[in-house]
Amino acid sequence: MVTAFMLTFYLQFRELAMNYNAGFDDLPDFLKGVIKFIVSNIFEIIEAIAIAISIFIPTFDGLFFTILISILFYMTLLHDFDNHKTISIHLWGLFLVIAGRLLSRIPYFIPKSTAAYVQQAFGLPFRGNSSTEYLWIILFALESLVIHIMETPMFQECRKDSIQRLAYRFIRVRQLKVLNRINQKVVDSIQHAKIEQIFRLADQ
Fold first, then answer.
1. pLDDT on residue 201
2. Where are the transmembrane segments (predicted)?
3. How many CA atoms lie within 13 A of 191 on its CB side?
4. Cβ–Cβ contacts within 10 Å for residue 157, how many?
C-alpha cells in the first residue's frame, strides 16, 4: 500500500511521454478496431470492473465505496455528470482509505478494546496485514490507468469519432422520421384524391 501511494506521487510529478501511435499504426485493422473500442469506452469498462471488485471488500469503507462509485457511475451514464469529476471523487475516496491504513501502522495505535472493533469494521492493518489491501491497490491502479488513458491523444480522437457517429446516427434518425411523415402525408393526399374522384364518378 505504501509503495502504491509513493508511486502515485512519483508518476504525478514526473511526466512520462509515450508515443502510442508508433506501434498502433503497425497493427492489423481488426486489432486497431478492438483497441479503439476499448480506448473510447475505457471509463465505462474500468468503472464497471471497479464496482465488481469493490463488492468483494467486506468492510464499511468497502460498502461505502461501492455505493459511491455506483451512484457516480449511474449519474455519469444517464445524467451527463462529468466523468473527470467522477474519477476525482473516486481518487479522493481511495486516498482517504490509503491514509487511514497508513495512519493505523503508526506504533501509537494498538488493536485493543475499541480499536479492535475499528480494525474489524474497516480492515485496518495496524501492525499486521490487511486482507483487503490488495483489492484497494487494484482499485487504485485501475483509476490511475483511466486517468492516464483519458489524457492521451488517442482517447480524445476515439471519443471524438464516437461522438460524431452518434451525432450522424441521430441526424439520420431525425431525417428518416421527417421523410416518413412526408411520405404519409403524400399517401393520405393521394387517397383523398382517389376517394374524391370516385365520388365525382358516382355523381355523374
1. 66
2. 91-110
3. 6
4. 14
